[in-house]
Design brief:
Elements (H helix, E strand, L loop, with lengths): L2 E5 L6 H13 L3 E6 L5 E3 L6 E3 L2 E2 L10 E4 L4 H5 L3 H12 L4 E4 L3 H6 L7 E2 L6 H6 L3 E2 L4 E4 L2 E4 L5 H18 L14
Length: 188
């Protein structure tokens, strides 16, 4: 099964972390919460989720993961100023691995130079930022353009999770499964 990095810091959108995290784990994938520091307790903006990071961005590489998920909230605005986080997302993107961002998560895709020429969606408040960065913005529940997956809001999380799972299924068919028996991430 796949190993997926979820990147987050304080004030992430609670459901945008929880719903895809749970769906991916239920499908048998390993999820790892990557933050600015290993073992840091972070809290969702709605105060419904408090989670502990499994790893620091400076201590991992895109080679450690099969995909990256960027929940929204205020977290992506903070994370995009950290060069190790940007490196992780950019390297995963350029390697052709699925990179999924929801709501305000596409801010990280802008910083990682992962949206120029791509069709994407997001929270409507990011529309101008994404267009200025070279993306074609559309108002849809989920958009898949190559290895980039984007969604607008918490109401879209089932479709967003389904898209990630589809991409991981394609990845699994493209390479042999060498992660049997991998330990699940401990942060959530």
């Amino acid at each position: 099964m796949a190993r997926i990095a979820f990147i987050a810091d304080d004030l992430f959108e609670d459901s945008e972390l929880r719903v895809p995290w749970d769906r991916l784990r239920q499908a048998g994938h390993e999820t790892v919460l990557v933050g600015l520091e290993k073992g840091k307790q972070i809290r969702g903006k709605k105060q419904r989720e408090t989670v502990t990071t499994d790893a620091a961005a400076r201590d991992v590489t895109a080679d450690d993961f099969d995909a990256v998920v960027v929940p929204g909230g205020y977290s992506p605005d903070h994370l995009r100023t950290d060069m190790d986080m940007v490196r992780l997302v950019r390297t995963a993107f350029t390697a052709g691995k699925p990179v999924a961002a929801v709501c305000h998560g596409p801010w990280m895709l802008i910083e990682a130079d992962a949206i120029d020429g791509k069709t994407v969606t997001s929270s409507p408040s990011l529309k101008t930022d994404l267009i200025n960065a070279g993306a074609r913005w559309v108002d849809r529940q989920v958009v898949e353009d190559g290895n980039v997956i984007t969604s607008r809001k918490p109401d879209d999380l089932e479709a967003f999770s389904d898209a990630i799972l589809r991409h991981l299924g394609e990845e699994a068919r493209a390479r042999p499964d060498d992660s049997a028996g991998a330990e699940q991430g401990a942060g959530i």
